[in-house]
Amino acid sequence: MKHLLESHPGVDQVYLLVAQGGLYDRPTLVQTVLGSCVSVVFFSREHLLGGIFHALLPTAAAYETVLPPQNPFRYVDSSIDALAARLARRGAAPCEVECKVFGGASALFQGEAGVGEQNVRAAFEALARHRFRVAASHVGGEKGRKLVFLSHTGEVFVKLLGSRSTAGNRRASGA
What we know:
CATH architecture: 2-Layer Sandwich
Shape: globular
């Protein structure tokens, strides 16, 4: 982390909690930690915009009768809808935006699809609906992840939690 800050002096820093997200037009280093939750990062090189969210549940429609609709970043599908709308307002067309999908670690129980898998499925479906291109993904598995996203370059660094060696550290670069 210190190395990233040294190589990108003057960047803003944000730590995303569950049900938070944003679109950044200033260089920003965004960190978050995921288990079954999902984050998608959005990057428009042409418009120098980067966006990310940290969503807890797959679809707003499945939970809106139980939980009041307070925040679009609580759900994967509405998070993607919200950031797609913000990008469009700033002039970034879906074909100009690179997306990367992270998270969705499995629950302790095997068998039917857990919330992590449902979150990942919801992300890919919503991104396809908006015609966003997915350049990279690091999803599933049994371990959580720490993400560091540089909004002004589109770079994402991933560390698997519980990894004792640096072999768990990976950079998710675009295609």
